[in-house]
Amino acid sequence: MLFDAFNGDADGLCALHQLRLAEPAVATLVTGVKRDIGLLRKIDAQAGDHVLALDIAVEKNAGPLAALLEKGVKVRWFDHHNPGLLPTHPNFQATIDTSADTCTSLLVDRFLGGKFRIWAVTAAFGDNLHESARRAAEPLVLSMPQLDRLRALGECLNYNGYGENLADLHFHPADLYRSLSAYADPFAFIEEAPEFKTLSQGYAADMAQAAATQPSEARASGAVFSLPDAAWARRVSGVYANNLATANPNRAHALLTRSPRGHYVVSVRAPLANQRGADELCQRFATGGGRRAAAGINVLPEARIPDFIAAFFATYSS
Ligand SMILES: [Mn+2]
After folding, report:
1. Per the domain annotation, does 249 fall within a domain?
2. How far is the CA of 141 from the centre of ligand 1 (A)?
3. Whole-angstrom Cα distance, residue 298 to residue 35?
4. Least enclosed by CB within 10 Å: which of 26, 243, 274, 280?
5. Would you state the torsion angle of the CA atoms of residues 301, 303, 306, 309, taken in this order, to the nearest 10 degrees?
């Protein structure tokens, strides 16, 4: 059996899409909301089975990964998150690069020799790596309007991944992948797929609500926003954080979204002009993790908000 475990955002979707365009196969899809990265524990594989893991941190799956490898399952991994200690096992094949200007779909693109580059460009836009996206797009000779459409698609696919649970999302990421997988051409998906229409309309409506919120604290070096306990806020927080980062490249951003269970979910974006520190800041909190440029905390108790804000401005001062 084949298991395709992928992050439910643009990068995970487009990484899998490229690989399955290159290596067509029917696999069991294992995915979830973007923050649900402990995907390997959901896989019940046996010796001889293959697991493909995309855009999820090795570190957050270390236990189940070791168990699968010991069972004789072959595991192939592409990712750009901090992996922690990588296992050395003959059944394990990993392509990991944590450079701030890359993403999993660009790593898959490199592996495939640029064969389905246009999807890697889409994913890089989705991961807010606009420069990398434009650089990767150069040999494709796309017009500006075409690049803008790929950016909109990347943002919409990324937007769909954000939520507390699957009920917050417009589409289960596995369903979105199945729809996407019928299109080799992203422009055809944009033109024809009802999913794209739903996502772009939902995105615009959610972003309009987010744009009306004021920062709870704003300095030259950083700004903190609080969003209410509402599905729109949970869906839009990550993408809104990306937009704030793009609009204010010298400022760091933190978005605190209240969860129905009373805690806060945190998204941090380092200043685009100085992409560092987000992972280290978030890792200081129990459920934090991510990349240098973009990281988050899954569960921040309300009582720890002052600690977080102090740590945020200590990381991004001057
Ligand atoms: Mn990614």
Report:
1. yes
2. 24
3. 7
4. 26
5. 0
Instruction: Give the distance (Å) from ligand 1 centre to CA of residue 151.
Output: 15
Distances (CA, A) of 39 to 8, 54, 289: 11, 10, 15
DSSP string, 283-296: HTSTTEEE-SSEEE
Q: What is the pLDDT of residues 200-259, one digit of tens each?
A: 999 999 999 999 999 999 999 999 999 999 999 999 988 899 889 999 999 999 999 999
Calculate mean pLDDT across residues 36-57: 97
* Residue entry with tokens 């524990």: 41
Q: Exposed, middle or buried by CB within 10 Å (0-12, 13-18, 19+), for 100?
A: middle
Share of the chain above pLDDT 70, in %: 100
- Same domain flag for 258 and 121: no
Which among 274, 18, 52 is positioned nearest to 136, based on CA atoms?
Answer: 18
- Domain CATH number, residue 194: 3.90.1640
**Ligand 1 centroid to 104 CA: how many Å?**
5
Q: What is the DSSP letter of 303?
A: G
Domain holding 139, by residue range, is 2-201
Closest residue by Cα to residue 35 from 148, 168, 140, 145: 168
CA 303–ligand 1 middle distance (angstroms): 30
Chain mean pLDDT for the chain: 96
